[in-house]
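Our platform keeps sequence and structure together, in a single record for each protein. Nothing more is needed to write down the fold, since each code stands for a local backbone conformation. An entry from our holdings is shown next, in its original layout:
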Amino acid sequence: MQLTGAFALSQGMPSAARAARRAPAPGAAAACAARGGRRAAPPLPRARFAGCSGAPWPAACRRGSPVARATGDSGDIGDAYDNLFRSKVFQSEIAVREFDSITSELRQLSMMATKFAEFDVTGKQMYLDKMRASCERYRIFMKRLELSDDPAAREYLRATNAQMLEGGFTLAAMFQGLEASLSQYEAIVRQEEAIVGDPVRHQVFTRALKEQWSQSAMGRIDMSYLGRVMDPNVLNRAQRDPEFFKCIREISDDPTPATLQRWIDHPTIGPLVAEMFKAMMSRSMGS
């Protein structure tokens, strides 16, 4: 399970109160799912979206793709996001507070995720419990949008699903993948609980888990660095580009400097990738 998508959600979607006034572009409705590993070491799942035919991140609509033009008369996915924040759903103070609470909690959890493998067994379970609760709150919030009679909310969901379909999945599949991912990590915690009383076996287990985690996008890119340093507008601009999810998918699949270099000169996504490169260097230097 990678949590970079949850970070993108929480960092890119600004406070609903601010958004209702200024209507900036919110973040991508993206989170991560996983598949099980088959190594003798702890079975750290590799990031994967359910229903994605092997793609670990959702592929965004490419430039010129019909999906990029299928977001309604407003023109692009960004307009659907903007209109959502102007909609009657966000005239409710209760909805605004819930939205802000969800995004704030996901932001905090995402910033902690880089060090997940370093937590003790109790800390890992507490973290997963928090993440499960946050994801469920997010799912319920999106369900409320679906059940509302607000045209802007329905257009937002339609546009988001249209964008996700190019990656081979939908919002529903995303939440199914999140559930599967969390269940797999809870299985890892149960494995650790079973051997925590044996210092030798436990040391081997945790060393293997840390090594596998360090090779993942979450382990290589310091999300706390991005949260502290990056201007949210960098992500907001990148998310409006049709290739945003394609970029994130490639980086999650192969989180190496070479992959980042392929995107660093992109006119709108490049500044985000440059910040991710700095976060990768920060993590490698242990800062």
In short: DSSP finds 14 helices and two strands in the chain. The radius of gyration is 19 Å. Residues 4-284 form one domain. The CA atoms of residues 139 and 269 lie 27 Å apart.
